[in-house]
Amino acid sequence: EVQLVESGGGLVQPGGSLRLSCADSGFTFRRDWMHWVRQVPGKGLVWVSRINPDGRTTTYADSVRGRFTISRDNAQNTVYLQMNMVGAEDTAVYYCVREFNGIRDFWGQGTLVVVSP
Amino acid sequence: QSVLAQPPSVSGTPGQRVTISCSGSNSNIGRDSVSWYQHLPGTAPTVLICYNYQRPSGVPDRFSGSKSGTSASLAISGLQSEDEADYYCAVWDNILNSYVFGSGTRVTVL
């Protein structure tokens, strides 16, 4: 079974930067779209970004466009989320999600990002 | 505020059937397929329904999905205590160019 393991979360100051990583144990990573979804504690799920299999096409939610960058390393089966100029509104659990054949079928356990002075 | 409206909560007794609605628009539900996710606090969300009504392998047939026009719904029949969770509908929105989630529905088993 596919396993997605996120890392890189933690405490960051407002205006700072953080890079999240997601390691995918599956065999289809090179053919999968990958997504990041976040959840503010006590609130609902919110989609953040996606990247296509070869890494050339990326899409972002309006709330993060220009501040966050999604990328991937297919040799390492890893997808990244570079978070810059973070604010309190970016405090959330960030989930990595695999999309296989149009189905967002596997989610990681999430990594918590806290933006605080 | 989500572009997909769901009731905040639904409840039922064990064995009962409950339904969760998801109301959208022509730019999302009206043009693309809907997925439903179950999320138990502290765990990774799991997909229950994809392509409006299809159940991925391993999902019990107590869960069923449907779609009509710009609305979709998830039904849980034979409600069980382990079904207590948050449920989200989701679909690609062509105008926002984003994957959008519903506001979420908390299912409580009385």
Protein model, in words:
The complex is a heterodimer of chains A (117) and B (110). Chain A is an all-beta fold and 117 residues long. Chain A has strands at residues 4-7, 10-12, 18-24, 33-39, 45-51, 58-60, 68-73, 78-83, 92-100, 103-107, 111-115. In chain A, strands 2, 4, 5, 6, 9, 10 and 11 form a 7-stranded mixed sheet that branches. Chain A has a 4-stranded antiparallel sheet with strand order 1-3-8-7, with no helix packed on it. Chain A starts with a strand and ends with a strand. The relative contact order of chain A is 0.32. Chain B has 110 residues and is mostly beta strands. Chain B is built from no helices and 9 strands. In chain B, a hairpin with a 6-residue loop joins strand 3 (35-39) and strand 4. The mean pLDDT of chain B is 96. Classes of the chains: A mainly beta (117), B mainly beta (110).
Spans where pLDDT lies below 50 across 5 or more residues of chain B = none
Biggest protein-protein contact in the assembly? A-B, 19 and 25 residues
Which structural class fits the helix and strand makeup of chain A?
Answer: mainly beta
Q: Percent range for helical residues of chain A?
A: under 10%
Biggest sheet overview of chain A: 7 strands, mixed
Average pLDDT score of chain A:
95
SSE string of chain B: EEEEEEEEE
